[in-house]
Structures are given as C-alpha cells and as structure tokens.
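Figure 3 (text version): structure tokens given as input.
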C-alpha cells in the first residue's frame, strides 16, 4: 500500500474493530497535521473534537456491524480564515480470509480535486455552486441550468452520480455548516441559521431535530461543554 503515499489528493486510512488507526497514507496524516507513525493506535477521539467524532463513530460502527457502506458522504472542512472546503468520504468493511469484518477502510477526497472523475465531471458547476452559495436559496432549476439540463434530467443525474437528491445534498451541506458554527463560534442560533441558508431559526431547529435528534441549543451545550480533542480543522 506504499503506492498510496503518492496520491496527494486521496486521504486513505484503515481502522481495526476498536476504531484505532492501523494504516494511513501520508496525505491523511497531513490532513490531521501529523507525521510518520503518530496516528497509529489512536482513535478519532484522540485527535478530533467530540462534535466531529460523533459522526465518525456512527459511520464506523455501521460499517463494522455490516449494516452499511458509506459512499461519497459530503463533509465540510472549516479553514482558519472562515472559508470552507468540501470533501466526500467513503468507508467499506475490511474482511479477513474467512469473510469476517476485522476493520474499516476509508477514503476522503476534496471535491474540487475530483473534476477528472466521470461521476463528478458533468455536475461540477452545480456542485461548485452549492459549495460556494449554500447560504442562500438555491433552486433545482438554477442548478440544472448551470449544467444545461432540465430540472428532471438534472435530478435524475444527480441522484445517480452523487447518491442523493439535490435537495437532500443541499440540506446536508447546510446542516454540516451549522454544526460547525454551533460548536466553534459564539454566533446566535438565529445568526447561524441565516449564515447557513435556513430561512429562520425555526427552520434550522426543525431540520436539526429531524436529522440529529437534538435541538441546536442542546447540540451547542453538549459540544461546547465537552470539546475534546485538539481542535484541529478536519472534516465533519
């Protein structure tokens, strides 16, 4: 697997059944601002804040239990200057010769570096628009026009290539951004709602409870009170 160290735009890792890192390439270590073997034996809890670890843990456990494979889940990276980069993460089980699950392997890639891949190439202008302008109302018609498709054609192609509907993708992007702001800033919940594209605080709260099972206020209290980790800027 040493060849993976030559792939600078692919962040690859393998964890055992206890979710400890047993292998990763140099790019992944760099993403977490680590070098060499520093991450070996560590878990996400050792290097990332708890509000991020919650999702990593849930995804890992689903894969380890054989209940799911994670494919191109959109994730957010908050940069030091307040801007965002967007990544997709996929995770699959690692099997021993007997077919038993003994770990989880994953790849994370920056969407902006994936334009050469067929399933993103055709939709790149629409995805870039979502990444840059999720804080405002974006219609499917507008996104479809950016790639010269009708709304129905665009919706079909988007679901086929990305694995979810345009509306669901936008909601996931907005919710990820809201999670980041709630856990890392003092912005009011109403301000968080406006900054992440929700019409108002109640809209954010409704979506948050539906998808997270917890209100934005409780989420903030939980993760601001228990920050954990080293506060690195890593994918949500």
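Below: residues designed for each position.
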């Amino acid at each position: 697997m040493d060849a993976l160290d030559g792939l600078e735009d692919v962040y690859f890792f393998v964890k055992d059944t206890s979710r400890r890192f047993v292998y990763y390439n140099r790019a992944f270590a760099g993403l977490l601002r680590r070098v060499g073997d520093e991450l070996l034996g560590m878990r996400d809890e050792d290097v990332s804040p708890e509000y991020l670890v919650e999702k990593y843990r849930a995804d890992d456990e689903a894969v380890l239990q054989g209940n799911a494979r994670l494919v191109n889940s959109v994730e957010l990276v908050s940069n030091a200057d307040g801007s965002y980069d967007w990544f997709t993460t996929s995770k699959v089980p690692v099997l021993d010769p007997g077919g038993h699950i003994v770990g989880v392997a994953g790849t994370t890639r920056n969407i902006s570096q994936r334009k050469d891949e067929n399933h993103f190439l055709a939709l790149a202008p629409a995805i870039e628009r979502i990444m840059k302008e999720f804080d405002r109302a974006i219609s499917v018609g507008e996104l479809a026009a950016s790639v010269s498709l009708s709304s129905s054609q665009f919706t079909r192609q988007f679901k086929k290539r990305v694995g979810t509907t345009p509306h669901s993708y936008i909601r996931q992007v907005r919710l990820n951004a809201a999670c980041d702001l709630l856990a890392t800033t003092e912005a009011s919940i109403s301000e968080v709602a406006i900054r992440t594209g929700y019409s108002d605080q109640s809209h954010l709260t409704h979506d948050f409870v539906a998808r997270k099972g917890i209100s934005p206020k409780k989420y903030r209290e939980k993760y601001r009170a228990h920050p954990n980790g080293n506060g690195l800027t890593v994918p949500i």
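Strands lie at 11-16, 21-24, 70-78, 84-95, 101-110.
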